[in-house]
From TrEMBL:
Protein name listed in UniProt: Uncharacterized protein
Length: 151
């Protein structure tokens, strides 16, 4: 049985929590083991069964990002893993001059208090054997709870 001292060491941060969706009810121990195979030993602070999914809290935001990036597979089935404390949205920037660098876009995202979780990608026209940039770039970003949209 854990003591209050043990419980105090666990994080209770919403931004360290993900939703793991599965149509199969897995044993909690199996789920924890698979998550810790991806994120490292002793990284799971909580695993709460909900209706059709689990809310899993890890120790750090970096561990959450790693779990989302690498994914989670149990019994050869890929499980959906999404943030609880943040919203992840793909944003598009249209009609961006070609001379604007990705670094400038990353800096702008920082001023808007959103965090990129993927690399910036670019859309192209197919012209014969060549790809010609059309001025559209897009990136997956993490919105904190206090930011509703980009200006």
């Amino acid at each position: 049985m854990s003591t209050d001292k043990d419980r105090c060491s666990y994080k209770r941060l919403k931004e360290c929590t993900v939703k793991v969706v599965s149509d199969i009810r897995h044993k909690v121990g199996v789920l924890i083991d698979e998550i810790e195979n991806v994120c490292g030993y002793d990284t799971v602070s909580a695993c709460v069964p909900m209706n059709g999914y689990y809310e899993v809290t890890l120790n750090t935001v970096d561990q959450i990002a790693k779990l989302i990036e690498e994914g989670l597979c149990i019994e050869e089935k890929q499980l959906e893993v999404t943030y609880v404390g943040f919203r992840i949205i793909v944003v598009s920037f249209m009609n961006i001059p070609h001379y604007i660098s990705d670094a400038e876009i990353y800096e702008k995202l920082k001023t808007w208090k959103v965090t990129p979780v993927s690399e910036i990608r670019e859309r192209f026209y197919k012209h014969g054997e060549r790809n010609i940039a059309d001025g559209t770039r897009f990136v997956k970003v993490k919105f904190p709870p206090e930011v509703a949209s980009l200006p």
